[in-house]
Amino acid sequence: MKKRITFFSRNDNRQAPKWVSALSAHIAKRHSSLVVSGQKPHFVVALGGDGTILEAARIYGKQGAVVVGLNLGHVGFLSSARHPREFIKTIDALATGAYTISKRMMVTGTVYRKNKLVYQADSLNEIVAQGLSGMIKLTVSIDGHPLQYIHGNGVMVATPTGSTAYNLSAHGPIVTPDIKCFIVTELLDHHIPTPSIVVRRTKTIQVDVTEIRAKGLLSMTATGEAVDAILTSDDMNLFPLHEGDRIEIGRSKRLIQFAEFTSDYFYKSLEEKFAFR
User: Fold this and answer.
1) CA nearest 241: which of 108, 110, 58, 146?
2) Residues 68 and 125 in one domain
3) Which pLDDT band, with edges at 50, 70 and 90, does 135 fall under?
4) DSSP 3-state assignment of 221?
5) Among this protein's residues, is 50 annotated catalytic?
6) Among 28, 56, 14, 16, which residue's Cα sits nearest to residue 259?
7) Are residues 65 and 181 in the same domain?
8) 79 and 112 fall within a common domain
9) What is the per-residue pLDDT for 15?
10) Number of DSSP helices (H) and strands (E) in the chain, helices first
11) 3-class DSSP assignment, residue 50
12) Which domain holds residue 29?
């Protein structure tokens, strides 16, 4: 049976269309086991940086498609091939089955308001609760045990996949993708800084919104609702937070599958990113 493969890129990426054309022609000429089709694809080939690959994973990965990232951005921690010279070889390996599957865990964030579920979202990289125009006070608990009292910009709960994204920018630790855990990292706390906490994946993280400095300077475009604090998932979906909200964060039931073509790819990405020698 032929495997269906589709391509994904952002409209502003000028390099992507020529690569889609070249790779589609290569598949048609060399690999009869593959057919380019957007209907329930077995593989999605994302051409771009980590943001593009993340978007492709969000759209197609949740449908069970294996994600193949071809980096047209910077280093590309999520990409299967870092350099264009490797793209054809990567497609050849995909067609012949010369790859392994890396199953990446996701994180689910659920918001309760007056004990009523009002929002839920899955993320591959991170869930973030943050103030927009001033301080926010949060209490972070692990399995009911309060561990952090944050008076600052907010808090982030990242997956190992997300440890090299926003978490890294916030000085959180890098965690290899084969470790199943969460990383809890505060954002610019005005108290004595608390180090990031690495939490077992079976734990439930609770974030209580205890105080928001309401200024009403910003509003949601769709509803006109004034917003001073938000919950974001993978820096895409936005939900306005209120004082008294309870956010429960834990392991999602969903996994995203990435194709890996070398066993030491993640470490080579680190070496290239940080120029380890």
Assistant:
1) 110
2) no
3) confident
4) coil
5) yes
6) 56
7) no
8) no
9) 95
10) 5, 16
11) helix
12) 3-99+261-274
